[in-house]
Amino acid sequence: MGKLRFGFELHRFKTKFVKSTDMAISVEDLENSTNFRLFLTVSYKDLMQFVFDYLKKKSGLTFFYWSFCLVFLSVAIFTRVYAAGKFPESKILFHTALGMIILPVIIIPVHEFLHVIPYYLSGAKNIRVGMDLKQYLFYVTAHRYVATPLQFSTVALTPFLIISAGLIVAAILLPGLWKWSLSLFLFVHATMCAGDIALLNLYWINKNKKIYTWDDVDKKEAYFYEKLY
C-alpha cells in the first residue's frame, strides 16, 4: 500500500512539474515555426571550449559561482591549517586523497543521476548518459526533447545544490579529519559543476531571450533556439 501511494505521489508531482513549465513544444515546432530562431549550435566535441568561453564571460551568475568556490576553498584551507599537528600525517594524507580524488570519483554517478531526476519529472523519455574522456566530461541529456528555460535550469542546478547542501551538513556534523576531507570535497565538487554553470551562463547572458534547447545525441549536437514572439 505504501509503495502504491509513493508511486501515486511521484506521478502527481511529475504531472504538476510538467504543467508548470509551458505547453509541450516539439523539435518540429522549433524547426518549422517562424516563432523560433536557431541562434547557437554546439557540437559535443567542442563542449570543453564552450565551457571555458562561457565561464570567462562576466555575469552575476559567474560572480556568485566563483564566490562560492572561493568560500569553499577558504573553508577547506582553514580546516587543513586547524588539523595540522593534531593528527598523524598519514591520516591527514589519507583524508586529503579522500576529499580530492576518491570521493569525487565516487560521486560522479550520483551527480549524473541527480541530472536525470528533473529530466524524468519534466516528461523526458529518451534520457541518455554519456562521457568524453578526452575532454574529461560526463553528461546527461534527453534525445530530441525540448527543454524550457525552467526545466533546463532545474536540470543543471540540482546536483550542485543538493550535493553542496549535503556536504555542508556532513562537514558540520562529522568529527575530526572528516571535516577536512569533506570541506575539500565540497570545493572539488563545486569545480566539477563548472560545465553546468557555463551552460546556465548562456541563459543568464541572454536573459532578454526565452531560450529553448534540445539535443540530437546521435549527431552529438545541442541546439539553442530563441522564441521571437
Topology:
Blueprint: H1 2-19, H2 27-32, E1 36-43, H3 47-56, H4 60-83, H5 89-121, E2 127-132, E3 137-142, H6 149-173, H7 178-192, H8 194-205, E4 211-216, E5 221-227
Antiparallel strand pairs: 1-5, 2-3, 4-5
Query: Count the helices. How many?
Result: 8
Distance between the termini: 48 Å
Low-confidence stretches: none
In terms of DSSP E residues, the strand content is 5-15%
Trace the largest sheet across and list its strands: 1-5-4
Count of strand segments: 5
Percent helix range = 55-70%
Taking all Cα atoms into account, the compactness measure Rg is 20 Å
Estimate the mean pLDDT confidence.
90
Helix and strand sequence: HHEHHHEEHHHEE
Q: What would you call the shape?
A: elongated
Quick one: biggest sheet? 3 strands, antiparallel
Structural class determined from secondary elements: alpha+beta
How many domains would you count in the coordinates?
1
